[in-house]
Structures are given as C-alpha cells and as structure tokens.
Amino acid sequence: MPGPGLFLIAVVIVVAVAAGWAPRRGRQGGAAVADPMVRSAAVAARRRVLGATGCALAVLVLAGYVATLRPEWLGLPLAVGPAIATATGLLLYAATPPERLRAESNRRVASLEPRAPWSFASRRTLGLLVLVAVAQVSLLIGTGLTSSPDDAGRYRVVTYSSGGVSSTASPYPGWFYGVPLMIVTVLLAVATLVAFWRIAATPSLPVEGLATPDRRRRVDTTRIIAGLGLGGLLLQLGGTSAAAGSALGNVLDQPGAPGEWRLVAAALFWLGLVCAVASIVSVTVAVSRGVALKADLATGPVSTGGSTAALPGAAE
Questions:
Q1: How does DSSP assign 195-234, residue by residue?
Q2: Which contiguous run of DSSP H or E holds residue 156?
Q3: How does DSSP classify residue 76?
Q4: What is the average pLDDT value for the chain, to the nearest integer?
Q5: What is the pLDDT of residues 141-179, one digit of tens each?
Q6: What gap in Å lies between CA 79 and CA 301, rounded to an integer?
Q7: Position with higher pLDDT, 115 vs 132
Q8: Nearest-angstrom CA–CA distance, 76 and 36
Q9: What mean pLDDT do residues 59-69 have?
C-alpha cells in the first residue's frame, strides 16, 4: 500500500499547483456578473468546495499518521485512507446547508426542469467514475483469489512455488485488504452520488433571467466534485495496483518463473504509478477550479433544457 510519503507529496503538489494555476484562471476568465445574487451563490459554492477539499486532505494525512502509530494494523489505514478521506469531504459538502439568497423583487421564479443527481454531469465523467470503480473492485477480486494466508491466517501474502522452491511476498492486496477496500469503494460511490444530489437539489436562483448562470454554476460545481471523487478512486486503485505488482514481482524473482506473469507484475506496478499521478492531476484540477470558482458567468437567454415559472410572493 502507498506510504505516508505519497500522501504528503500529493498534498504539497495539489496545494502548490492549485495556488499557481488558480490566479491565471481568474485573470483569463470573463467579466464578472454584476448581479450580487449570482456572485454570492458562486462564493458560497467555492467555500463549500474548498472546505470539503481541506477536510479530505486532513483525513488523508491523519490516515498516514495513524498507520505509523499502529504498525500492527499492517498498513490498513493507508489502504482505505484515500476513499475514506474523499468520502468524508464529499459528505461534508453535501451536509453544508445552502446559502439563503434574498431577491430584491417580489417576483420570484423557480425552475420546472426535473433534476436527478447526475443531471449536471457529462456521460464521459460518469463513465470514467464507474470505470475506475469497477477496475478497483475487479482487481481486488483477482488479488483476493490469488492471495495466501500469512502465519496469522490473514490473506495478505502471495505465494509462488516451482520445482520444489516456494517463495512468498507481502504486503499483497488479498482479502485482508480487499474486503475493507471494496467497502470503502462503495462508500465513496455513495458519497459522490450524495454530493451530486446536493448540487441538483439546491434551490434555483429566485430571480428571473438567471437560469443560465445558475445552471452553469451547477455544472462547474459538479465537475469539481467529480474530480475530487475520481482522484480518491484513482489514488486507491494506484495503491492497490502498485502493491500487487511489487509483491508479484518479488515473488516471481526466481528461475523458472513464467515470463508472462512477470509482465503482469510490471504492468500492475506501472499502472499504479500512472493512477497515482492521474489522481494528483484530477485533484489539482478540481481544487484549482474550486479556488477560481466565481461569478464570471455571462447572463443571457435562458437555456436549461427546462422551463421556469413565475412565483408571486415576498422574498425569503
């Protein structure tokens, strides 16, 4: 499983790149919308996103610290840390109540467009999330079936025997790690869906003519949340794959070992490194978008794919 250094490096890179990229995004963006309601909604969304990100990073570092304090847990906190950290941040985002926006006019509007939790996410984004989650579960099933028990009966080693010679290597993501990892993968999927639902269920801006910036704000925020969720999944998949590849490579380092299995071990190890880098990129882009999230949404004709209805009455 990935060590504490990987978590610390990830945190440093995310913060550094986000701090450098966000100002450029802000300078390259369009003119800010004059409507104070749009600006307030964007600022509130940015605050929730950054709060969720900070919470996730704190839990991630805590997982690494707990693993160093309790070595008898054999790195299990590090294994489940990425998914638990990301899920905690996303659930915090979903639990934060929306800001109450007051309309200056007595004429209010509400969107009649039906919304589902995935209404503001692209098919490519949803497909990528599902693909990584399925890859993680499939890999864990494969490593679980090929794992062996250690001296204490925990399925966390891999064994290879040939010509009367037997060798073992660990840590290997067998059932000892695989079952908790599959559980937290489901937890992360549910947390991502809940965060999507939170974005979709937030009341629309109650002023006529703001349907377009309101929808764009939801799309941008959904993209950020998806980036955070994908980053957590990729980091977990990267750790699992790298650990499996490393253990397989060690156990197959003997005469007569099948060459194709050595290729599998090398492929898993490098896949793990690629997933770790992709995780850092995904989270960095999401954090950068969150920092730069502001009211640079041009008002214009309503184009939401739905309709709005005027609601007479006083402002909140």
A1: HHHHHHHSPPPSSTT-HHHHHHHHHHHHHHHHHHHHHHHH
A2: strand 155-162
A3: H
A4: 79
A5: 999 999 999 989 999 999 988 777 788 888 999 999 999
A6: 48
A7: 132
A8: 48
A9: 91
What is the enclosing helix (H) or strand (E) of 311? strand 308-312
More confident residue, 175 or 210: 175
| Axis crossing angle, helix 211-251 with helix 36-69, rounded to the nearest 10 | 20
Q: For residues 9 and 61, what is the distance between their CA atoms, to the nearest angstrom?
A: 11
- Find the mean pLDDT for residues 46-65: 88
Q: What is the pTM of this model?
A: 0.80
Task: Pull the structure tokens for residue 81.
Answer: 């840390």
Average pLDDT over every residue of 216-225: 87
Residue type present at position 261: W
Q: What angle do CA 84, 87, 93 make, to 5 degrees?
A: 145
Rounded Cα gap, residues 284 and 282, in angstroms: 5
Q: List the chain domain ranges.
A: 4-98+121-298
Q: For residue 128, what are the CA distances in angstroms to 121, 123, 228, 289?
A: 11, 8, 13, 19
Please give the backbone phi and psi of residue 109, each rounded to the nearest 5 degrees, phi first.
-130, 160
Backbone angles phi, psi at 146, to 5 degrees: -100, 5
- In a 13 Å sphere around the CA of 284, the CA atoms on its Cβ side amount to 19
Rounded Cα distance between 11 and 58, Å, is 9
pLDDT-derived band at 215, boundaries 50, 70, 90: confident
List the alpha helices (DSSP H) in 153-210.
Answer: 175-201
CA dist 46 and 29 (Å) reads 16
Is the Cβ–Cβ distance between 222 and 192 less than 8 Å?
Answer: no
Determine how β-strand 308-312 pairs with β-strand 107-111.
Answer: antiparallel
